[in-house]
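Marked as duplicate of an earlier ticket. Keeping the data here for the record.
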Amino acid sequence: MIIREYKSAECIFLAQLFYDTVHTVNSQDYTKEQLDVWATGTVDLSEWDRSFLEHTTLVAVFDDLIVGFADMDRSGYLDRLYVHKDYQGKGIATALINELEKRTKEKHVVCFATDASITARPFFEKLGYTVQTENIVVRGGLPLTNFRMTKQVSII
């Protein structure tokens, strides 16, 4: 597996990976209706690309296939983290997070944060993130639960 920088030409593939992952991996914790409003199948690709370019955005590649991606802003907020359904549990998400945290820590960030889904919460807890608040986000009139989680940066 290779972890590398995002390229704008990959935006459409990341959008599809996002949709597929939400609708498969998260289906154990959210209803079909909730998944449909979370990942509608249409994203503003120019907005996503702009966001990816402003953030530190990494992709994981295995056998020339993009199997995961993650992006973190300058403040240490992890915006997106998605791994292909067939590559779950292989250390891809951990590798992406570790590299993002390393790169962001170099910019003197003191705390990482994310809004984790019900599905992702145990993963982030294993990485040392703790729940600060439970949130209810309403999309398309449907409530979606997530958790604001943070991790203090250890200064060495």
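See parent ticket for discussion. The CA atoms of residues 26 and 119 lie 6 Å apart.
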